[in-house]
Amino acid sequence: MTDTKMLASRFPADFTFGVATASFQIEGATKEDGRKPSIWDAFSNMPGRVFGRHNGDVACDHYHRLEEDLDLIKEMGVSAYRFSVAWPRIIPEGVGRVNEPGLDFYDRLVDGCKARGIRTFATLYHWDLPLALMGDGGWTARSTAYAFQRYAKVVMDRLGDRLDAVATFNEPWCSVWLSHLYGVHAPGERNMEAALHAMHYTNLAHGLGVEAIRDVSPKVPVGLVLNAHSVIPGSDSERDTAAAERAFDFHNGAFFGPVFKGEYPASLLNALGDRMPKVEEGDLATISQKLDWWGLNYYTPMRVADDATEGAEFPATRPAPFVGETVTDIGWEVWPAAMTSLVEDLYRRYDLPEMYVTENGACYNMGIGADGEVDDQPRLDYYADHLSVCADLVASGYPLRGYFAWSLMDNFEWAEGYRMRFGLVHVDYETQVRTVKKSGKWYRDLALEFPRGNQ
Length: 455
Ligand code: IFM
Fold this sequence. Notes:
The protein is built from 15 helices and 13 strands.
């Protein structure tokens, strides 16, 4: 359904429409105003890690173009902006000295949003760990969880009076498994023990962060953003069905379990428990404090089959073929129905609070045409189809309160560098000119319908 008025009529009048970004992906200015390197600065400068050896030095130059980018967000018609705070700007060495100019930047950002009537959804950790913390082991060290707690306190002390919502982490799956087991993201580790340590200490940091946030800013709704995987067995066979259940426990249960149930999945403990760090008394209680909301980042399903190889490591699965005919430019299958079944499944398994879709969007790399326009119809279709799923979820009674498009603008797509584009707004990285794409204009028309009844 691409008719924006019809689509809008299927959402509650006060539904939130927003756009999302993350600090390292857009800010640039990595050496300015006291910021020190993050693990992504180091990783992107190592040969062979990031496509084209692209890095975040300039990115979208957002740090220097803050006011014009906030105007752009306003022009997009949305009522909320989801951004992340860069830990290495605030506490450049991870522990120790607080860097006031770093806090000033986010002060200006938050005030700029408020002045434009845009609500602020901050994420404290979207992967830019201060590099200095690697000296202690980064996320494989328990001390990093306490360093995060202090950082959370410092940020809330300064911004908490003006934030509309805060999330501790963005997609722990990526900063744990993708970064410490699969070696694709910084710090590029490929080791199950390291990954299991990162898993528990990230979960602990989340819980400690919740404590700090509530201490300082009890009124700010606290949440956690998870890229939950919609795990689908490649066939109806018993083996593939069991494989999918193991994959669920590994990819989702490792985070949803401790946070929403106060326990790690039994299958994960049985298979890998002896390689985990010590779960100290009180850890699970800290991790499982009730949240005000949670965020779902959804893009594509995860189809799995049983990996019968002798000695295959838990969860012992391999990828199963795509079923959907459409694949985005980054190679991800388009399958909106998996978003429905995922939300249903998660609310069945866990006692979840209200939710936002904190990221959803598609990678298509078309550029500016001769007419000066970016015709990205496939992205527009992707948004329309997934928003239709969201409207159905609301109609079925799921407490879905808002939706954030990923992303406001093209940006540094991690290991893919700048070659993969997710923006509603095209960025010319030579000139930094921003051009609203066809999908961006469509999204603006939709967002401008809200809040409905007020116009
Ligand atoms: O760009 C990322 C974002 O940082 C986290 N979620 C997925 C997006 C697309 O890969």
